[in-house]
Specification:
single chain, 95 residues, mainly alpha
Amino acid sequence: MKKSIFMLIGLLLTAAPAFAQIGGIEDSVNDIGDTIRTIFPILLGVIFLVGFLFNAGHFFGENADLKKGITRVLVFVLIAGAVVGIFTYLISIVV
């Protein structure tokens, strides 16, 4: 009887630190998720600006091609929208 009580107490004492570690990991993951949520809109705005500047040459200048410029901007917006959608979906599931 004493052996089983000692084993139970020993098991409980070894399991307690594992629960504490899980809580610490969860907090750090939440902190990283909050940081990513804060930085992501700024990063996305910079990406849109750079993408527009690369495609602006098709709208202005001597060799302006409006159709090609609009097509490239639409493709860029679709790809960026897909990335935002996937990112938002993953963040909502994981964190």
